[in-house]
User: Fold this.
Amino acid sequence: MKLSALAKKPQLVKMEIKDEGIVKKYGETVEFWIYDRYDMDTYLKLMNNDENDFVSLSVHIKNMVMDEDGSLVFGDGEIIPPDVLTKMVEEVIGHLGNSVAQTL
Assistant:
């Protein structure tokens, strides 16, 4: 297989937080979009993140979370509840694959 066969532009994929506690508290699943692939710099930032530094990790993840139109969800100073943020980070890390998740 030629390497060029693997190269493609990232596509948005829908993510859903289906956690029972989140659904019960907010009345429905929470959805957001991320790209299906990222550049190596993004992967390395996540892999090299200190496992005890959730703040830094959540900042990286928040810069990856978008609406269905590809616009970033988080504007200047906007925050979401900590329980949703925690589950959002878990979903993104899970999506990016076991190699990243094992290092965090």
In short: Confidence is low (pLDDT under 50) at residues 98-104. The helical segments are 20-26, 40-47, 54-62, 82-96, 98-103.
